[in-house]
């Protein structure tokens, strides 16, 4: 069992080293929108060639300002801080969070180079 765990860990390490190798991403600004509770929630990500998220904005103009609007700010900050589009949503703002997470995933996928 220990040999399997060691082999699995090694394979995971090798796979993760290729996940962010140069050339796997095209540096640029990518946007996508998804429907929240009040309308479209648009996420824009600035991604470098290694897949690093340098900047993120979440535009939710039709969401409730004190709920969805505030969640948009928290989510944008979290995408950059956690360097991931797979983050937790904001409690109390489920639909806005789900829309932002879906849009962020789509925007990030646009940056990936398909081989």
From TrEMBL:
Residues 1-21 form the signal peptide. Keywords: Signal. InterPro entries: FMN-bd (IPR007329). Pfam families: FMN_bind. Residues 36-111 form the FMN-binding domain. The keyword Metal-binding does not apply. The keyword Signal applies. This is FMN-binding protein.
């Amino acid at each position: 069992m220990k040999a399997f765990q060691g082999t699995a860990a090694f394979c995971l390490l090798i796979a993760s080293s290729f996940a962010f190798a140069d050339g796997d991403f095209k540096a640029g600004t990518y946007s996508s929108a998804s429907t929240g509770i009040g309308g479209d929630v648009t996420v824009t990500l600035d991604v470098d060639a290694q897949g690093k998220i340098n900047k993120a904005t979440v535009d939710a103009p039709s969401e409730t300002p004190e709920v969805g609007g505030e969640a948009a700010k928290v989510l944008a900050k979290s995408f950059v801080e956690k360097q991931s589009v797979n983050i937790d949503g904001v409690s109390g703002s489920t639909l806005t969070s789900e829309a932002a997470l879906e849009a962020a995933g789509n925007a990030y996928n646009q940056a990936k180079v398909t081989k």
